[in-house]
Every structure is written in C-alpha cells, then in structure tokens.
Design goal:
The protein is an alpha+beta fold and 181 residues long. The protein has 2 domains: 129 residues, Trna Endonuclease, Chain: A, domain 1 (3-Layer(aba) Sandwich); 36 residues, no CATH class. It is 24% helix and 29% strand. The strands form 3 sheets. A 7-stranded mixed β-sheet has the order 1-4-5-6-7-8-9, with helices on both faces. Strands 2-3 form a two-stranded antiparallel sheet. It has a two-stranded antiparallel ribbon with strand order 10-11. The radius of gyration is 31 Å and the shape is rod-shaped.
C-alpha cells in the first residue's frame, strides 16, 4: 500500500524524526499547539523536537517557499515563538535556505537551517544542514537466477553420505559391491 504524504510539513517531520540523533533530538512530534508563557497565546507549530535527555524542546517550522530564501522577518517570527514558549531553539526547514540577515537571527537564537527540496517524499529527498548532505533514492531491484537442489542421504549399509536419486538408500559403492558378489 502506498502512503500519500499530504504535505511538505509531514515529510519534513518524518525525515527529521528518522534522523533525530543528527539534530541532538530524542524524537520529533508532529503538528501541534503550544502555549506562549509570556504572551499567554497559543502557537500552532509544524513540529516539535524533544531534546535528548529531555533537556527542552525545539520548534520546527517548515516553509516550502520555492522562489526566495527565508528572510529576516520570517526568522524574527520564529525567534519570538522560541522566546515566548521557552523553547531551547528552533529548526527552519525550507527548500532554499535563509538570507544573510536571517542567518544572524538564526545564530543568535539557536535556530538551525535545514534545506529540504520542495518536492520531497519520505524516500526521495535531498536534505542539507550544517556540513551534511543526506540523499534519499528509491528504485526497484530485480533479481533473477536459478537454483538446484541436491538431496543427500546416509547409506544404510556403510553410513557414508551420498546424493540420492529418488528413493535410493544404498550408496553407489555399496551397490557395486553387492552386484559383484
């Protein structure tokens, strides 16, 4: 049965979950609402990463913008969500990465930029972060060949193992001896 992935966010969350240790995460949870500690408002986030050792969480935002990099304003929005919710950082996932001003905010607020191609699937993707590149490729492998089966049995006369043809119980050597007698 083929799984239909409904959105970029779901594929991104799935791939981050599959590689959680690469991001210092214990696990990745899907889309959810979290509470703002300062503002008292609720925030809907695309995914939530739980840090290894239960040392906090990171907010994961996925933006499938295919014509421009994430700008300073977009990273500023994520930075405020991090501050408001008490998160220890964030991950921004987008096909093109982030602009120079956005990179400054990302560095200051512990936000990691992950580039994930726009038309990714759980098995076919390119994902870049830090100095790493992960590539998923799927295909079909066809194997063909033949096999033969040899049945071995133990000679009831001498106990030696031999290849039996049909219901033979005596090895060729013992058969030759009995014929020559």
């Amino acid at each position: 049965m083929k799984t239909h992935w409904k959105s970029y966010e779901e594929v991104a969350a799935y791939l981050l979950e599959q590689n959680a240790h690469e991001f210092g995460l214990k696990r990745v949870e899907g889309k959810q609402k979290i509470h703002g500690l300062r503002s008292g408002t609720g925030w809907e986030i695309d995914a939530k990463g739980i840090r290894e050792g239960n040392e906090g969480f990171v907010i994961i935002e996925c933006r499938r913008y295919t014509t421009s990099k994430q700008n300073q304003g977009k990273l500023g929005e994520l930075a405020y969500r991090i501050i408001d919710t008490g998160a220890s950082g964030g991950i921004i996932v987008s096909p093109l990465g982030i602009q120079e001003g956005a990179a400054k905010i990302a560095a200051h607020e512990n936000i990691l930029s992950v580039q994930l191609n726009a038309n990714c699937t759980p098995t076919e993707f390119t994902m870049k972060f830090l100095n790493k590149l992960m590539i998923g490729i799927s295909g079909t492998l066809v194997l063909s060949g033949s096999c033969s089966i040899e049945v071995f049995t133990k000679c009831r006369t001498c106990g030696k193992q031999f290849t039996a043809a049909e219901n033979e119980t005596i090895c060729p050597d013992c058969q030759a001896k009995s014929v020559s007698k």
